[in-house]
Write a structure and sequence with these properties.
The structure is a single chain. The chain has a single domain (11-107), classed as predicted glycosyltransferase like domains (Thrombin, subunit H), CATH 2.40.10.220. The longest helix is centred in the C-terminal third of the chain and has 14 residues, at 95-108. The protein starts with 8 loop residues before the first strand and ends in a 7-residue tail after the last helix. It has 115 residues and is α+β, with helices and mostly antiparallel strands. Helices cover 19% and strands 40% of the residues.
Length: 115
């Protein structure tokens, strides 16, 4: 069995998920780490290897890949990890703080210029 790369925290964060096929629906996160999250998908909309766009508690978009499925439970791996500060705010159910921390992370991201 593989060891987890990051500690997962329980959260009550909600948001939305949009598939590459254009379907969008509300989600509730069951747990979260810097590298990914677990959501329930009782209708079986998400397929292994599929990429989705998440908005979580007013932050995002977060691009993620479906890494595993166990019945209705689905594990998603973020393409760009969340910062520890954003995860901590989600754990505290501090949605405004999570948005501020996420926006701050974006402002520090390197700017790529095409010449």
């Amino acid at each position: 069995m593989k060891a987890r790369r990051a500690v997962r925290i329980l959260t009550t964060a909600t948001g939305s998920c949009r598939s590459a096929r254009g379907m969008q629906w509300d989600i509730a996160l069951a747990d979260l780490s810097e590298g990914g999250c677990r959501v329930d998908d009782p209708r079986g909309r998400l397929q292994l290897g599929e990429f989705v766009r998440l908005n979580i508690a007013g932050t995002g978009p977060h691009m993620a890949e479906v890494a595993w499925r166990q019945g209705a439970r689905v594990g998603l791996v973020f393409q760009r990890q969340l910062s520890a500060q954003v995860v901590r705010r989600f754990a505290e159910a501090d949605w405004d703080g999570a948005r501020a921390a996420f926006d701050e992370d974006l402002s520090r991201a390197p700017v790529r210029r095409l010449l």
